[in-house]
Design brief:
- It is built from 3 helices and 11 strands.
- By secondary structure, it is α+β, with helices and mostly antiparallel strands.
- The protein has one domain.
- The strands form 3 sheets. A 4-stranded antiparallel β-sheet has the order 2-1-6-9.
- The longest helix is centred in the N-terminal third of the chain and has 20 residues.
């Protein structure tokens, strides 16, 4: 009976360890995993065609973060495509942030700052354009 109790305890411990080691896809856990001790900002990405949007908290430590890791499972997630038409800086303005999004091809979107809190994707100011943010990164610093 003693070996059964030890085996059950060992299995329970193993299951708990595996469960805690599974990756999560929320912005909060990403922020916690990065141990952000400085100022943070909140950026909301919106798809004005579908009405989907999702905010995320970003450290202002000048480290590029993969947007896919922040938005998997959110309303912006369209089977691995992260479709947005705009982004807005919603909090953290007092820290004087400077945030940009960079595509895998090297295109830079932004910046978002305390003075420029909204950015519309696309080249035509009179037309709504949705871009796929899969493979892009967001990076914020304090200036």
């Amino acid at each position: 009976m003693k070996s059964f109790a030890i085996t059950t305890s060992t299995i329970a411990l193993l299951i708990a360890s595996l469960a805690s080691a599974l990756p999560t896809n929320t912005a909060t856990s990403t922020l916690a995993e990065r141990d952000c001790s400085g100022p943070t900002v909140t950026i909301a990405f919106s798809n004005d065609m579908s009405g989907a949007w999702a905010p995320t908290t970003i450290c202002t430590d000048n480290v590029a973060v993969d947007l896919s890791s922040l938005f998997t499972g959110t309303p912006l997630d369209n089977n691995g495509q992260y479709l947005a038409s705009s982004m807005s800086l919603n909090s953290g303005l007092a820290s004087n942030p400077y945030c940009t999004v960079q595509s895998a091809a090297g295109d830079v979107y932004g910046p978002l700052t305390a003075q420029t809190t909204y950015y519309k994707f696309g080249n035509n100011v009179n037309q709504l354009q949705v871009v796929n943010l899969a493979g892009t990164t967001v990076q914020c610093s304090v200036v």
